[in-house]
Design goal:
The longest helix is centred in the N-terminal third of the chain and has 27 residues. α1 crosses α2 and α2 runs parallel beside α9. It contains eleven helices and 14 strands. Strands 2-1-3-14-11-10-9-8-7-4-5-6 form a twelve-stranded mixed beta sheet, with helices on both faces. A two-stranded antiparallel ribbon has the order 12-13. With about 400 residues, it is of the alpha/beta class. It folds into two domains: about 80 residues, no CATH class; about 300 residues, TIM Barrel (Alpha-Beta Barrel).
């Protein structure tokens, strides 16, 4: 049903006031899903217009991992600007290889970013265990990798995540060497606070292929910008991966010349998605669901596309990657297929146990946000009707 924005607002005000232990009935769920579809349709229509205005945009599709000129009809896994050899190999592995294989060790961080999925609970993250690494959900010692490589299919790539690896970076060198000797592409995420010439050189000598700096974690700190330049001397691919927030966009634009002069290869503009931990930090923003999975502020990917427009106009010497919710959606479809899943199998979905209907009131109250098409609700679904 093409529910009107006013009816959507009326119903969502009602849903937001329901007790937490009171679920929606089937017809109420139908109304809620219609509202989410209306919001997503309006968001995607606006973005389709923005995408058509970005010159040189490329789409990575299954048969063309290097990317081909973007058209709206392509079944794109993701979109980017720039040279194909600057696009991060870790992203190709994630999107077209065996998926994002996470290697986890560190359960601590030296920052507390409002966009972090673990905001407010960083001191409650359970440890992996002394001498252990979490790989594929299991726990292993470094020496167990030889057995893993002998018995299981090697991943095309792995990523070091969870939380800040430079908190104990010296523990990483040995396992990086083992994956490197096995021919597995490796990339690592860091906020850059603990990076220096000594440990960056050691990472490069160990065989790390790619290092991604969350530049937004430090407000584009000059020290971290210099660390990116240092990293480029030792590690083949170096870039930025940061959730797109207004603060990061503003500071990055102010410093973009000095950042681009570091010689980095790519900028992954991650669409900010929210969970129960970080949602309160963005309460009051216009929100939308992407395919009933990730919940995001509307502004986040809009900032990405605006930045890509600037990059195209100014001919930046880096790959600028639209790492959107749609990219994450495609990533999971690829991973399930590589694992032998049935047609349509995916684990992409909503990260909230209970949908926060109140988070959608701002977008429904925003006079500048319009639904594309509206129609009256049928009998039994109108405000005032008693429905279950």
């Amino acid at each position: 049903m093409k529910i009107s924005k006013q009816d959507a607002l009326t119903w969502f005000q009602f849903f937001a006031d329901l007790p937490e232990d009171e679920p929606l009935g089937c017809r109420q769920q139908e109304i809620a899903l219609a509202v989410f579809a209306q919001i997503e349709d309006a968001v995607e229509a606006h973005r389709a217009e923005m995408l058509c205005r970005i010159p040189g945009l490329k789409a990575i599709v299954a048969d063309h991992p290097e990317g081909i000129p973007y058209t709206p009809s392509l079944p794109a896994c993701t979109l980017y600007l720039g040279s194909a050899d600057r696009f991060p190999a870790g992203c190709r592995s994630c999107l077209l290889g065996s998926g994002l294989s996470a290697v986890r060790k560190t359960n601590r961080c030296n920052a507390a970013c409002p966009f972090c999925y673990d905001y407010g609970v960083l001191d409650q993250i359970p440890p992996i265990g002394e001498g252990l690494w979490e790989i594929g959900g299991g726990r292993y010692r470094e020496e167990d990798l030889d057995l893993l490589f002998a018995l299981q299919r090697k991943p095309t790539g792995v990523a070091y995540v969870y939380l800040e690896p430079f908190m104990e970076i010296e523990k990483y060198y040995g396992i990086i060497r083992r994956f490197h000797d096995a021919g597995v592409h490796q990339h690592m995420y860091t906020n850059g606070i603990g990076a220096d010439e000594e440990n960056l050189r050691a990472l490069g000598e160990s065989g790390l292929d790619e290092l991604r700096f969350n530049l937004g974690a430090t407000g584009c700190s000059d020290r971290v910008i210099r660390a990116m330049e240092t990293a480029k001397r030792f590690i083949p691919q170096v870039g930025i991966e940061t959730p797109m927030t207004r603060e990061f966009d503003r500071i990055f634009r102010d410093k973009r010349r000095i950042i681009l002069d570091t010689g980095i290869d790519f900028i992954n503009c991650a669409e900010l998605h929210l969970n129960e931990n970080n949602l309160p930090n963005y309460w009051g923003e216009n929100m939308y669901f992407c395919r009933m999975g990730y919940l995001s502020p509307v502004f986040s990917r809009d900032l990405t596309l605006s930045l890509m427009m600037t990059a195209a106009e100014e001919k930046w010497p880096v790959a600028v990657h639209d790492c959107s919710n749609r990219t994450k959606f495609a990533r999971d479809l690829n991973l399930r297929a590589k694992e032998g899943g049935w047609f349509g199998q995916t684990s992409y979905g909503c990260e909230f146990e209970r949908i926060p209907y109140g988070a959608f009131l701002p977008v429904l109250q925003d006079p500048a946000f319009a639904f594309i098409e509206e129609e009256p609700l049928p009998p039994g679904f109108r405000p005032g009707d008693v429905i279950l």
